[in-house]
Amino acid sequence: MPEDSDTLSAYAGRWIARIRGRVVAQGGTPEQALRAAQKSRHKEKPEILYMPIPFLQSPLLDKVRGALPGQETHLVGGAVRDMLLNRLSRDFDFALPSKGISSARRVANALHADFMILDDERDTGRVIFTETDGVRTFLDFATYRGQNLEEDLRNRDFTINAIALDLRTDTIFDPLNGASDLRAKLIRACSSSSISDDPVRILRAIRQAAEFDFKIELETRKAMKEAASLLPNVSPERKRDELFKILEGTKPDTAMRALELLGVFPYLLPELPAMKGVIQSEPHVYDVWEHTLGVLGYLDSILAALRIGYSAEETSDLFTGLLTLRIGRFRQQIADHFAKSLNPNRSARAALFFAALYHDVGKPGTRSVDEAGRIRFFDHEVRGAEIAAHRGREFNLSNDEIERIQKIVRHHMRFMFFVSRLENDRQEPSRRAIYRFFREAGEAGIDIILLGLADLRGKLGPLLTQESWIAALDVARLLLENYWEKPHEIVAPPRLLDGNELIKEFNLEAGPLIGQLLEAIREGQATGKISTREEAVQFSRNWLDENKQTGK
Predict the structure, then answer these.
(1) How many Cβ atoms are within 10 Å of 28's Cβ, its own excluded?
(2) Rounded-to-integer distance, Cα 432 and Cα 198, Å
(3) What angle in degrees, to the nearest 10, is found between the helix axes of 399-425 and 444-460?
């Protein structure tokens, strides 16, 4: 009796062997289905069929088909995985028997997109398709890594990324049963040597486990731990790229804990292990390392609650509710802040999380105990900024990224100082303090505010009171209001005089004195003492007299 449609739907995305209308075997490839059938029905010849599976396809795939008509082309890797998970990808990898670069060039011409040779030796070309809104999609075309498609897939990292889609027939080729692992939410290495062959896959496994909420198979975890010491063989750039994808992704705190448990830090972030077990005085409730993990987690949840489209109904947490009530109106500005690129290949969000990971890295080297037994970490933020910048240079981050990270770490205690003054002395940050904060931090001031909120939650944990949290939110609101809603009053007052006017007015010579005087005028504007050009001239005259530097 033939199988009904409901029964056949159980084989969606698989190849089946059918004899007289009944399914006798199945597999991830036609060959697997055939071999499985021959084991039990070796005298009969089965019919091999593919059972279609519905999934979300990008319109770009049709354009690739049109540019490469009839050519054997398989979409492979993460894009297929994402389709099966009903997610859209912006990175497409195509595997071909040959002509990877020439195929990429043909597709680029058809799409009116940019083209570049990615790897001449491995015959790999890249197409960069840019949408009208500026969003870019990358399409890489490479020849098989091995003699055929199956060998190519077996040489990949994890089974969930070793699934191919034949563009000609829309059929799945899955020799390692990656689709089954997808359904089981399991990350499993393609082979016993997958991790040692390319140790950066340790980071990739952790990232994808966090991103998809998957578990890593036991043998794969063992292989990852054993291969950790091989990470120095990987280029700094590849390690950096995987690390920053972890930091800008979901659950960065969970991912960092997993990396620490695997023994990865000595070979990736060697400054971090020293933070473990470093005790802090009250009101800190955790050691430096546990505090840092907490900050990462709280920062992730704070940014999630401040995203555009977030609904207060998504949480029953009082502190998150107060957060959205006090500073939720800045969602668009926060989104715009993180949309500004420090580097085309890495996000500003990832730079913030890297700074959060390193914000207290200077504490182990600056720890002291005073006569009263109180633990101190004098200038830990200064030392931490130096350490974070050094690690950034080792990873070949851009100068803009290093500067942003350094500023965040260097000034992160200023927000906590503002909160302490408001809570204990009922004193809001003065106009001068707000001006100087943004003068020194610049755009990093936004990151410092967000990190400061997470830092407070990570510092006090379950002991955080509603009063302390409201004080922190009031400081954050005041700073953000001045930066975004009335910047010309305090943060960046309009220039009333320029250097040439000062030189002419007071018969001065060009030099550092002019810059000092201009800064003094701007601070005077920020504090409300100067509002007109005439007041600026009079202020300059008095300032020069006081400093005995008339230059006449």
Answers:
(1) 25
(2) 53
(3) 50
Distance, CA of 430 to chain centre: 34
Mean pLDDT of 241-268: 97
From edge to edge, which strands make up the β-sheet containing 47-50? 22-27, 15-19, 47-50
Per-residue pLDDT reduced to its tens digit, 442-482: 999 999 999 999 999 999 999 999 999 999 999 999 999 99
Query: What is the β-pairing status of strands 22-27 and 124-130?
Result: unpaired
Confidence check: pLDDT of 5 > 60:
no
Which of 188, 172, 271, 275 minimizes the C-alpha distance to 224?
188
CA 546 to chain centre: 51
Q: Which pLDDT value is given to residue 445?
A: 98
The answer to whether residue 549 scores a pLDDT higher than 70 is no
CB neighbourhood size of 507 (10 A):
10
Lowest mean pLDDT among 160-169, 219-228, 498-507: 498-507
**Which part of the chain has CATH 3.30.460.10?**
59-257
Q: What pLDDT does residue 551 have?
A: 46
DSSP state for residue 329 in the 8-state scheme: G
Determine the Cα–Cα distance for residues 340 and 371; give it in Å rounded to an integer. Answer: 48
CATH superfamily of 59-257: Beta Polymerase, domain 2 (3.30.460.10)
Residues 6+ apart with CB under 8 A from 136: 90, 128, 129, 130
Of 432, 541, 535, 411, the residue nearest 482 (C-alpha) = 432
The SS3 of residue 536 is helix
**Do residues 537 and 505 lie in contact, with contact meaning Cβ atoms separated by under 8 Å?**
yes
Written as six digits, the tokens of 289 are 């390392």
- Alpha-carbon distances, residue 360 vs 265, 377, 451 (angstroms): 16, 10, 12
Provide the 8-state DSSP code for 280: -
CA distance 22 to 376: 75
Report the C-alpha dihedral over residues 309, 312, 314, 315, rounded to 10 degrees: 140
Between 4 and 440, residue with greater pLDDT: 440
Q: Note the Cα 64 to chain centre separation in Å.
A: 30
The Cα angle at residue 118 between residues 115 and 123, in degrees rounded to 5: 105
Distance CA 483, CA 369 (A): 38
Please report the DSSP string for 66-100 in residue order. Answer: HHSTT---EEETHHHHHHHTT---SEEEEEESS-H
Q: For residue 387, give the nearest of 353, 417, 364 by alpha carbon.
A: 364
Q: Which helix (H) or strand (E) holds 26?
A: strand 22-27
492 with 485: CB under 8 angstroms?
no
From CA 70, how far away is CA 211, in angstroms rounded?
A: 36
pLDDT at 552 over 50: no
- Partnered with residue 25 across adjacent β-strands are 17
* DSSP, residue by residue, 471-492: HHHHHHHHHHIIIII-TTTTTS
pLDDT of residue 95: 97
pLDDT at position 1, please? 46
